[in-house]
Design brief:
Blueprint (H helix, E strand, L loop, with lengths): L16 H9 L3 H20 L4 H21 L5 H24 L6 H23 L13 H4 L6 E2 L3 E3 L2 E7 L7 H15 L6 E5 L6 E6 L25 E6 L4 E4 L14 E4 L6 H13 L4 E6 L16 E3 L3 H23 L34 E6 L2 H8 L5 H6 L5 E7 L9 H5 L3 E5 L6 H4 L2 H5 L14 E5 L12 E3 L7 H14 L5 H11 L58 E2 L3 E2 L5 H17 L4 E2 L5 H6 L6 H11 L3 E3 L6 E3 L2 H4 L1
Parallel strand pairs: 8-12, 8-13, 9-10, 9-11, 11-12
Antiparallel strand pairs: 1-3, 2-3, 3-5, 4-5, 6-7, 6-15, 13-14, 14-15, 16-17, 18-20, 19-20
């Protein structure tokens, strides 16, 4: 037994059995030493002040003051400990007063000392025993963690333990600590627990400045890459949750686009933001494939990168634009359909878009007829207007290009999705950014976190700057319908590989055959702005070719030798006729280099109208002087009169000014008429 050792915490390691027992007894000795010291003070006081009335008054006042001071000093402890301390001091000081005046052995004074003193000492021993944890270490329930990080005397409640997630309520010291103190200490807590910074989150109680929940996720379940294998709910409604991936505790990462009046959830617009290499493309593909798999939604999609990542899904889109003037027309069309869709929804008794609005209107409660009978109108599917690589569009159209859409579209059953690398204020107006309530924030530069996420989410522990582009697919999702406590929880989207391409192509084919088509109101409003640039989704078996493509029929030499050898526009020319005389201005150089004929005013109007028809037939609805250069060369016409003709056409209603100086939108012929 003499060779047994104990460690400093009481385990056998470094000392004798006597040392071990002494170490275990140390926490229980102070109450007994205080009991002995109290008896000694009483005996000395009686020797100094026997039967002294003035001393009695002084000792009584001292006893009362000491008890009150103990009560006040205990305000930062628990109520039970505060009361226990005050009662102990009151009993001890009262006994000392009696012993000093009457003597420690007079009457019941000695009996009270011998019985009451040990009882109080034992009560404190019991308290120490109850505070001792299972390892034999005396301390608070957090093992001194909060004291280490500067949150001493904060109280942790009973923790809720889930798979890979621990949630503990936290109560701070009233008047001394606030929720801001906890958010500033999160990095220290992560350091104390030897966990990454993103594993520790704090969710403040919205009704209190000193209460909240501390969330600890000890294991990163996102390290394993999960590949996309297909949509989660093929044929479901767009109102059902859209599955993007999973959170770090294994639960599904979801979001919603339409609102739900029963659940109190508003419709939303979305922002997808993340630096190059952060997995922004995969995040967008996760969201887009989920949208296209639903039966009651159409998608208008703009991608200045010529659908580099989204080509397999293009056939399922209702409208696809490749940037430039095509996107400019799409923006104008979205602006035009908003009031048309809002009027339709209002006329049918819908305050916001719900899945029933996409069905044939056979319910008398949603009838546009004055007599109250079912109107039978064709339903209106939800519309997603998606602008990929939107920084390009914003540079061309201005930083407030989406502001009107973002502020007005939600009530019309339209959701705006904007994707770009850095949503800073020099690229996107603050009004537009404030109107995008939802965000998928991927890795970014630490200095750019505030552009993507709300400040409250960053304070609660969200830190996309910690990933940058080193962890593709890691993200935070902030969106209506998601529990706000989940906002600072990291998730990860699913990975799209080459194996996903055939599945995406089959999904696009499903959308062609089974997906929604634009309702007459939406299609009419879009065509009124875009003309032939908007045709709606091509059916899978209608044999149509994409606009602008030419199909070579003869496989041998690429020439069609079965038709006439003369262009149709030259069919009426007599090859034997004399050439016309030269006209004024045919060879007159303009600006020192250019030459061309100046047509008469009547001829100019006719030629310009023909040019606009050519552009409209080709689906190019945004034009400017530079677009007429090749046309002028083809027709041997000078160019300076183009600007004048543009202004005349605008006055006549055939053109409409755009947000870009020198660019005009062609008003379709029927709309102009």
């Amino acid at each position: 037994m003499q060779g047994m050792v104990v460690d400093p915490q009481g385990g056998p390691e470094n000392g004798t059995v006597r040392a071990y027992l002494l170490h275990k007894a140390k926490p229980h000795i102070p109450p007994w030493l205080t009991w002995g010291a109290t008896g000694l003070v009483g005996a000395l006081g009686h020797w100094r002040w026997p039967d002294n009335a003035a001393a009695g008054v002084g000792l009584t006042l001292t006893s009362v003051a000491l008890t009150g001071a103990t009560w006040l000093a205990g305000k930062n402890t628990t109520q039970q400990r505060r009361l226990h301390s005050a009662v102990t001091v009151a009993c001890g000081s009262a006994w000392v007063t009696a012993a000093c005046l009457a003597g420690p052995t007079a009457g019941p004074v000695d009996d009270l000392f011998l019985m009451g003193g040990p009882a109080l000492a034992l009560s404190w021993n019991v308290r120490v025993v109850l505070r001792t944890n299972t390892e034999g270490v005396v301390g608070s329930s957090d093992g001194g963690l909060l004291a280490k990080v500067g949150l001493a005397r904060a109280q942790i409640g009973a923790a809720k333990v889930e798979p890979n997630r621990v949630t503990a309520p936290l109560a701070l010291q009233p008047g001394e600590q606030t929720n801001d103190d906890v958010t500033k200490a999160l990095a220290k807590i992560a350091s104390a627990l030897d966990l990454p910074r993103t594993a520790i989150r704090y969710s403040p109680d919205p009704d209190s400045e000193r209460r909240g929940e501390l969330v600890i996720v000890p294991e990163d379940m996102l390290a394993e890459v999960v590949e996309w294998e297909g949509p989660s709910n093929l044929g479901g409604s767009i109102a059902d949750p859209l599955v993007l991936g999973r959170y770090d505790d294994g639960s599904l990462l979801v979001m919603w686009l339409p609102g739900d009046p029963d659940a109190g959830r508003n419709s939303t617009h979305g922002l997808i933001a993340g630096q190059s290499g952060s997995g922004k493309g995969d995040a967008a593909l996760n969201l887009l494939t989920e949208i296209l798999s639903r039966r009651d939604v159409i998608v208008w999609f703009s991608d200045p990168k010529a659908f580099q990542d989204f080509a397999p899904l293009r056939a399922g889109l209702d409208w696809a634009a490749e940037g430039g003037s095509q996107t400019e027309v799409m923006v104008a069309a979205v602006e035009a359909v908003i009031p048309a869709r809002t009027r339709w929804l209002g006329a049918h008794g819908y305050r916001q878009w719900v899945p029933e609005a996409a069905e044939v209107q056979n319910d008398p409660e949603h009838s546009c007829r004055a007599d109250g009978r079912a109107c039978g109108c064709v339903g209106m599917p939800f519309l997603v207007a998606w602008f990929e690589e939107a920084a390009n569009t914003l540079r061309n159209l201005g930083d407030d290009a989406f502001t009107g859409i973002a502020q007005e579209a939600r009530s019309a059953g339209v959701s705006l999705i904007v994707s770009l690398q850095r949503p800073s204020y020099d690229q996107m107006s603050t009004s537009t950014r404030a109107s995008l309530p939802s965000v998928i924030a991927l890795g970014c530069d630490p200095r750019d976190e505030g552009f993507s996420l709300p400040e409250t989410v960053i304070d609660a522990g969200a830190h996309p700057g910690a990933w940058a582009n080193r962890r593709p697919g890691y993200c935070y999702v902030v969106s209506p319908g998601i529990d706000e406590a989940r906002y600072p929880s990291p998730g990860r989207t699913r990975r799209f590989t080459i194996r996903a391409v055939p599945v995406m192509e089959r999904l696009a084919a499903w959308a062609q055959a089974n997906g929604a088509v634009a309702d007459p109101v939406t299609a009419g409003a879009a065509s009124g702005v875009a003309g032939r640039a908007y045709t709606g989704r091509t059916a899978a078996d209608d044999g149509q070719q994409p606009t602008g493509l030419r199909v070579v029929r003869d496989e041998e030499d690429g020439m069609d030798n079965g038709g006439p050898l003369v262009d149709p526009e030259d069919a009426d020319i007599d090859p034997e006729a004399e050439l016309p005389e030269s006209e004024e201005g045919d060879d007159a150089p303009l600006f020192g280099e250019e030459s061309g004929r100046k047509p008469t005013p009547e001829e100019a109007r006719r030629l310009f109208a023909a040019a606009l028809e050519e552009f409209e037939d080709a689906g190019q609805m945004i034009v400017g002087p530079k677009d007429f250069m090749d046309w002028c060369d083809r027709n041997n016409l000078s160019r300076p009169w183009v600007s004048a003709r543009l202004k005349e056409a605008a006055i006549e209603g055939r053109l409409e000014a755009t947000n870009t100086t020198g660019r005009w939108r062609i008003v379709p012929v029927l709309t102009a008429a």
